[in-house]
Every structure is written in structure tokens, then in C-alpha cells.
Write a structure and sequence with these properties.
The chain has 153 residues and is mainly alpha-helical. The radius of gyration is 35 Å and the shape is elongated. It starts with a helix and ends with a helix. The relative contact order is 0.07.
């Protein structure tokens, strides 16, 4: 059965329908899960990406498996979407709202709150040992060793 479905996918590709290996694998999986009468819809859902490809798909399906089931075709539905503008909702904490807000748009209370938050930040950098400080125990540069190594290069 998989060989026939793969040949069907290749025929669709020969008719310039975008039926790559991934879509054909999805079609084979869908066909194995559905009853045999649903093969047309399994292929149409997995192999057809654009509305203008439906006629090509129907033609190739008719050549391979006979006529597609006409009685089971659902009537096309028209859906009308009404999109409302999103309203700003207060779901975030006041501190989180301040993270994204520009300083120029902050009130005096918000600026005071920001100053308190920034005072709590640690801004010290961790100390890092470099080669110049390796030889001493008190943290001063070992100038003698540094000069000796510089003469080598």
C-alpha cells in the first residue's frame, strides 16, 4: 500500500504539485490511520497546500484510485473574523511594567521606585587573576617575572 501511495505522490510531483518526501510521509501516516474511504481527504489535507492545486490533485487521484468521493465533500464554509484591538491589561506586576517603560514616561513615584531597584543591584565585577599577578601572594604585580617573560618575545 505504501508503494502505491508513494507512486501517487511522485505523480503529483510530476504535475508540479509541491509534494515533497515529508508531505508524502505524512500522507502515508494519515492513510494508515483512516478508513479506506477517507484516502482522498487524507491526501488532500496533507499533499495540497494551495487552493489552485486542488484540480491537479483531483485529476491525479482520479487516474490512480478512481473518482474521488463526491457525496462526502463538505460544503465550503465562509468564516468572518472580527478582530478587536487588544486592550492593555494589568496582568504584570508594577516592577515588570517598569522594566519596559521609558524614563521619560515615568512619574515621580515610578522614578523613585526605579532608583530603589537600581540601588539594590550589585555592580562589582569579579576579580580575575592575570599572568602578571600570578607569582605574588599579596596581589601586587610581579614586575620581575613580567619583564623577564617580555624579553623572551
Amino acid at each position: 500500500m505504501i508503494e502505491a501511495l508513494t507512486r501517487f505522490g511522485r505523480a503529483l510531483r510530476d504535475e508540479d504539485l509541491d509534494a515533497g518526501p515529508g508531505r508524502i510521509a505524512d500522507f502515508c501516516r494519515a492513510a494508515s490511520l483512516l478508513p479506506p474511504g477517507e484516502l482522498y481527504w487524507a491526501g488532500r489535507a496533507t499533499l495540497v497546500a494551495r487552493g489552485e492545486d486542488i484540480l491537479v490533485y483531483d485529476d491525479v487521484f482520479r487516474r490512480f484510485f478512481g473518482s474521488p468521493p463526491v457525496a462526502d465533500r463538505p460544503t465550503p464554509m465562509r468564516v468572518r473574523l472580527v478582530v478587536e484591538a487588544e486592550r492593555e491589561r494589568g496582568l504584570a506586576s508594577p516592577v515588570e511594567l517598569l522594566r519596559q517603560k521609558s524614563f521619560s514616561r515615568c512619574s515621580r513615584e515610578e522614578l523613585a521606585a526605579l532608583a530603589g531597584l537600581m540601588a539594590g543591584l550589585r555592580l562589582t565585577l569579579p576579580s580575575r587573576r592575570t599572568r602578571r599577578f600570578e607569582g605574588t601572594r599579596d596581589g601586587r604585580p610581579d614586575l620581575r617575572r613580567t619583564l623577564r617573560r617580555s624579553f623572551r618575545t
